[in-house]
Amino acid sequence: MRLRPDQLDSHLSKTLLPAYLITGDELLLCQEAADQIRSACRQAGILERDVLEVDRHFDWSQLLDAGQSLSLFGDRKLIELRLGSGKMDQKSSAALQDYLGHADGSNILLVSCGRLDKRSMNAKWVKALEEHGAVLQIWPVERRQLGQWIGQRLNAAGLNADREAAELLADRVEGNLLAADQEIQKLKVLMGERAIDAETVAAAVTSSARYDVFKLIDTALSGNTPQTLRILQSLMAEGSEQIAMLGAVSAELRKLYNCAEQLANGHGIDRVLDGARVWDKKKALYKQALKRLKRRQLAELLQLAARSDSALKGQSDDDGEQLMQQLVTRLSGADLLPA
């Protein structure tokens, strides 16, 4: 079956299917949908979670092994399969279909990946997930809807904000929902129950850190490696939330990868950037970055971002901060493998 994100809460209150696919490039909304499924699993007594990160060296027998191994805390567990861009060859597609064909519903499989195009949505492995479970496509919030979306999030956070405040914040975050959520949480701490207008938002933005994640991303896209590293070091010294910062960089990387893929298929750059909903004032930066970074290099950066995420969450012995430095350095054009 297919579900809209706004149907997920109601669905999970009634049932828990053997498999779910969350696909999309809006990191915040994808995270929140995954959190809803994780919460439903915990309420159902499913306390153990296996996380499988898929890269080009992934052994698909791990998925079957995870499905067959017993949970330490009960009879059931949640298996998270993270596919990155969602590109599946015949072997990996067959392995996932094989798992689903033998699944008895005792475990829950949560598959996540970037936005899938129309052709990929008709792939056999997606159809198998649709048959055995539910598929959720997370669509971007359009610019004309962003002010309303932010207003709803402000109200949900218990903040009394007028329309102008929401629209100003929409301009501030440039379509980055993760950043919008961070700004809302900051306003909640600063303002409490006081009314929020555009002047309040402007003051809060002005009093924020000298450098922010937007400046970090834009500087990296421009190819200025020394300045990129200075901004990153400043953010880290100020105690910025590293996982959220990485999430914003990863979202930009996924968008760049999708653009590079379209360019490799022969589409014109202006059409590609319009299709990716790149804001007009960022198009020049994207054009610069896409001249430096080819599809394979961006795929490697996405893998590095996944390693950074695992390290920052304590799931590996790697140095998360060091990997973050490598990531933004290579995004800015330094230390890249040949195209």
UniProtKB/TrEMBL annotation:
GO cellular component: DNA polymerase III complex
Membrane-spanning intervals of the chain: none
Pfam families (UniProt xref): DNA_pol3_delt_C, DNA_pol3_delta
Domain called DNA polymerase III delta N-terminal: residue spans: 20-137
Nucleotidyltransferase recorded as keyword: yes
One BP term from GO: DNA-templated DNA replication
Domain DNA polymerase III subunit delta C-terminal, chain residue ranges per copy: 214-315
Family matches, as SUPFAM superfamilies: P-loop containing nucleoside triphosphate hydrolases (SSF52540), post-AAA+ oligomerization domain-like (SSF48019)
Keywords (A to Z) from UniProt: DNA replication, DNA-directed DNA polymerase, Nucleotidyltransferase, Transferase
Record-linked InterPro entries: DNA_pol3_clamp-load_cplx_C, DNA_pol3_delt_C, DNA_pol3_delta_N, DNA_polIII_delta, P-loop_NTPase
Catalytic activity reported: DNA(n) + a 2'-deoxyribonucleoside 5'-triphosphate = DNA(n+1) + diphosphate
Domain of life assignment: Bacteria
EC number, as in UniProt: 2.7.7.7
GO MF annotations, alphabetized: DNA binding; DNA-directed DNA polymerase activity
Family statement: Belongs to the DNA polymerase HolA subunit family.
Protein's name in the database: DNA polymerase III subunit delta
Organism: Spongiibacter nanhainus
